[in-house]
Amino acid sequence: MAIALVLVLVVVGSVVFHFLSPWWWTPIASNWDYIDNTIIISFWITGVVFAAVVLFMAYCVFRFRHREGNRAAYEPENQRLERWLTVVTAVGVTALLVPGLFVWSRFVTVPSDATELEVVAQQWQWSFRLPGKDGKLGTSDTRIVSAENPLGIVPSDPNGQDDIVVEAADLHLPVGKPVKVLLRSIDVLHDFYIPEFRAKMDMIPGSVTYFWFTPTRTGTFQVLCAELCGQGHPLMHGVAVVDTEQDYLAWVGQQQTFAQLSAPQKTGSAARSTESTTASGLDVAAKLETPEAR
Q1: CA–CA separation, 53 vs 92, rounded Å?
Q2: Would 285 be classed as within a structural domain?
Q3: Under DSSP, is residue 19 helix (H, G, I), strand (E, B) or coil?
Q4: In a 10 Å sphere around its CB, with 0-12 CB exposed, 13-18 middle and 19+ buried, how is residue 96 labelled?
Q5: Which residue range or ranges hold the Cytochrome oxidase subunit II copper A binding domain (predicted)?
Q6: Which of 91, 136, 192, 213 gives the lowest tally of CB atoms within 10 Å of its CB?
Q7: Is residue 276 included in any domain, yes or no?
């Protein structure tokens, strides 16, 4: 009797805690309310099944408790019960899967007017690349990643020269405009996740994954890695800022392109060449001024 009462209290306590819990989702900041709705449907289905199973257990514990003089009736199989459980289980699993399939279809169908953005993960920081004035991202290759070219942008691709490179700094996005996020990792498995956007995807070395979203409100949001990626995983945080159009354009105007970041190397080489030529010229001039030369 006591066990049956405990099982009933577990169900009641779980339902009350669910509705009164102080822990819930962060306020949504993207178009993916479909994902919230799908999770709520899953909560209701699994919650009803949980309550039904535990209450049935409580009923069985009470109904078939030991009593003097009663004997258990052995029943090896019950085809009617098996058919009933099979149908109910199939309906429940279908109800769990179908909403997710509709959401996934939307998740991978990128709007034609979406702007591409590249996110590059490495232990343990986030870097970003945005298209320049041509609106196209240049090609990249992990084999040419270096300290001078941390994102592996192919220098010979003209589309990549005006790409905006944001290395280990805040990402800014315009509000109300769809964004296709291209995801790359240059070392191990990572996962790009912004809780308020409800969108996340694994980043697999050697491949490019993607998803899309539309920011719906301005604000500052935390970027997290949702995949265990090594010792510094808990510290792999970033910041995404959703701006108004005016603020976003002002931020873009302050960023450097790949060509600008590559320019100092060329300037340094040219400067060293110039210094060498100048030194040679001074040596020649000094020799011409010596008495022997005169």
Answers
A1: 13
A2: no
A3: helix
A4: middle
A5: 112-254
A6: 91
A7: no
Give the predicted TM-score (pTM) of the model.
Answer: 0.74
Residue 227 covered by a domain: yes
Contacts (Cβ under 8 Å, ≥6 apart) of 243: 172, 173, 174, 175, 218, 251
Q: pLDDT tens string for the chain (294 positions)?
A: 788 888 889 999 998 988 888 888 889 999 998 888 998 888 898 899 999 999 999 998 888 887 887 787 787 888 888 999 899 889 988 988 898 888 888 888 899 889 999 999 988 899 999 998 888 888 888 888 888 888 888 888 888 888 888 888 889 999 999 999 999 998 899 999 999 999 888 999 888 999 999 999 999 999 999 988 888 898 899 999 999 999 999 998 888 888 888 875 544 444 444 444 334 333 433 333 344 433
Instruction: Look up the domain containing 216 and give its range.
Output: 115-259
Is residue 125 assigned to a domain?
Answer: yes
Contact in structure between 157 and 134 (CB atoms under 8 Å): no
Q: Give the span between the Cα atoms of 4 and 180, in whole angstroms.
A: 53
DSSP state of 210: E
- Are 50 and 147 found together in one domain? no
